[in-house]
Amino acid sequence: MAKTSAPHTLVIVESPAKARTIEKYLGKGYTVESSIGHIRDLPKSAADIPEKYKGKAWARLGLDIENDFQPLYVVAPEKRAHVAKLRKMASEADEIILATDDDREGESIAWHLFQELRPKVPVKRMVFHEITKEAIQAAIAAPRQIDSNLVEAQETRRALDRLYGYEVSPVLWKKVAPKLSAGRVQSVATRMLVERERERMRFVSATWWDLLVTGKTAEGATFPARLTDVAGQKLALGRDFDPLTGRLKDGVVARLLGEAEARALAEGLSGQPLTVTSAEEKPFTQRPYPPFITSTLQQEGSRKLGFAATRTMRAAQRLYEQGYITYMRTDSTNLSSEAVSAARTQVAQMYGPSYLSPQPRVYAKKSKNAQEAHEAIRPAGSSFRTPDSLRGELSGDEWRLYDLIWKRTVACQMADARGRSLRVRLGGKAKTGEDVQLSASGRTIDFPGFLRAYVEGSDDPSAALEDRETPLPPLREGERVLADSVKPEGHETQPPARYTEASLVQSLEGAGIGRPSTYASILGTIQDRGYATKKGQALVPSWTAFATSALLEHHFSSLVDYDFTAKMEEDLDDIAGGRAQRVPYLRRFYLGDHGEGMALRPLIDSKMGEIDARGIATIVVPKLEGSGIEVRVGRYGPYMERSGEKANLPEDLAPDELTAEKAEEIMSRPTGDRVIGTDEATGHPVVARAGRYGPYVTLGAENPPIRSASLFPTDDLGTLTLGRALKLLSLPRLVGTSEGEEVWAQNGKYGPYLKRGSDSRSLTSHEELFNVGIQEAEALFLQPRYGKGRAAAAPPLRSFEYPGRANIILKSGRFGPYLTDGEKNATLRKGEDEGTLTAERALEILEERGKEPQKKPGKSGARTGAARTGAAKKSGARTPARKGAASTSAASAAPAKKAPAKKAPAKKAPAKAAAKAKAPAKATFTWADLRPHLGVLSDPERRLVTATREQGRKVEDIAPELGLEVAKAKGMALQASKKLNQAARGG
DNA sequence: CAGTGAGCGAGCTTCCGCTTGACTT
């Protein structure tokens, strides 16, 4: 620690760009470094959990529930190098100042830094809200200590989010679909989208008509006016209709104009004189909008520039890093005095002193739960660069965003806009005799004030239209004008608009949900999880979002309350203020306390059994009520079902577009099936179809078909002939009988194979299904099961050699590439590329997380992989010998085979072990074993089986006796055989 | 969700909030 140089102080802030700026202000004796956000967090997944805690039940959560929810903090691997650097810098400093943001998260970062760096020199905490020389020097002069209550509040927030997310998500995996997620923020955001879509789905539109009249004064000036009353009755407008019925709302007394009436009235009013019955002029003023915060920047970026939230933030980040704007993740509309004076100077220069607001404007806190650690988003510095002066310096997106920020900032110190609004009523009489009233309104801007610099964009075009200046000619009461032209106009009521990125962020912010740093990523999360897709600007919730939201609303309603976060924030404020404690709060939330609190864990435990997955997957669509059609989310996406008939829902069909007619159309849509002919023997159609498992043909057009068969790889769905289809449908084929068992040739999901009892052998080609004879089949059954096939199928991808150590080889498995040295195996993870893997890295991976393969039940003791491999080979080699011996003597074959098979499960006395023990369960049973289980079969099944097994008859011969088609009887025989084997296995 | 037999190394998915590069294509 002994240093020859002058004493110096290490200041740590959160952002590198901020560090650079501050260093300039602090000068000699100070080094400023950044933490780059949080440096530690709860472990994200198993890979982050230290070995020491791996076995703990609570490690997955990172919170030791039984020990006061003690958090387990880890430095993420990608942060380790940086933390090491900070630690080194800390050891070389004489003093450390933790200058992270002045909010809950910032306080926590300071505390984590303190914990992780373990400094041996004095440590101070300082805060500032604007990056100006004065503010920073003032902050340096007034240091404080870390506020442990505030840190506790952050830890509570963190723990609650973890418990919510990591406990509720698995409920969704089980009840809806894997990889889904739930969370305090995203689940409410999703719910908002779903509820809006539900309104749209229930919406019934209505049509109404009115008249647009062009009035003409004596001087020849024209102006637009709209019909408001007919024969003393108010005209019905869009807002008078009930969105659920499309009819006028209860209690509304209004005249509803139909098209014919509107046209007749237009005709009758055309050219008629009108009298101004009233003309009212009112002055108005409009104040400028507050300067940008993250949410409003994203909203205006979207409305005015058409940027998605991420695009706005990317451009803002670059502007910030290059020193053009202040920090872009903020919830404060506050401007430093430096900024206010810079803006005012610029207004005076560019627009003249009359455009300046008389007093500097101060904007109040805008949103719920704002933490106000930073300034508003504004051009940086004590004199703003004008957008024009930066044209050559900034890229397109950056310049346009800077321009927007500059205008908004400057505008906020400008004078109010002033103007007059004029509202005129007119009366008249149609030629047909009805009295009518009309109204016209106008808006005149007398002094634009801030509007010279900035007009806020709008999500609603009709509102924007209203905002536009619409001057009216000066009209006085009693004045006569002419209905110069009269145009009937039809209108349709519109369902509530879908959320856009911007409006969703606005709503979330309004409810105090989410933070400036997360708005953009929330949008990403709900899209990544498949809860929403973008259709133009609109966010359209998916059917999965409906299912997820329904589950949460019905079973965890308080978790998706719009007020949940607001309530949490109140509680966190209490903790930050020392009025409440973290542990009791978390206990109530997670475990419950004598019937009080959320009690999440017990709730989940009781709900797991209660929640009906099928019910949750069935989505209520009001417009399909009574149609018998149900919408359901299945493993392969959303589909409709009506009495067994199914149809996929097209991917691009938004939920609100699914009307009864549309549903019927999709249900009756040809599924791409092609009828290729009729089976003469049965009279049923033969249909070629494309299925989930690939192309196949069916006998019968209905669902499910009578029979079906996959096409061979050499077949083509488009050119398949009837003869070929029927040939495929003739499978499975009975090859003959061997060892008292039928041998069937069958096409399965692993390809063509032969089956004898519960034994099977793969065939090398599909055509063999039709050709293979009983001798060849028997020869195949003499071969070991997978002997040559497997040895050839698994060549190592790569091999790494090490002196004094077994080789490690890279193999391809069904879970992807993995490493093995015969002892341990380790699957490659994301980012570990099989091509670029080095020998060192391979060794590292295997030693770090290699696992011994799980012991198979029924195998004794812990054997090494190498030993087991050897044993397997040996037993593989032995099998044909044994079978060969058996085949020479049919009588002795059965017991020889049966003995090991039956003994194994018998040894495993506990029911659990037996149920898990797959290997012995696959044993071959003799007819004597199976016979006692005939009771599990239906009558025809039993007759089929006994006739084939005991009388050696063929299925083809028995089928007519049972009144069955041969193919169906074959299927039934197979099915029966399966049932019997299962019964014998299960005991 | 629609027909289907076996055997091979399991292990992970997920939250919210702070913050940037380091990667590859």
From TrEMBL:
GO terms for molecular function: DNA binding; DNA topoisomerase type I (single strand cut, ATP-independent) activity; metal ion binding. The record marks 38, 157-158, 161, 166, 173, 329, 529 as: Interaction with DNA. Residues 8-132 form the Toprim domain. It holds the Pfam family Toprim_C_rpt. The active site is at residue 327. Residues 846-855 have a biased composition (Basic and acidic residues). Signal peptide: none annotated. Keywords: DNA-binding, Isomerase, Magnesium, Metal-binding, Topoisomerase. Residues 859-878, 885-898 have a biased composition (Low complexity). Its EC number is 5.6.2.1. Residues 846-912 are annotated as: Disordered. Residues 181-186 are annotated as: Interaction with DNA. Monomer. This is DNA topoisomerase 1. It comes from Deinococcus koreensis.
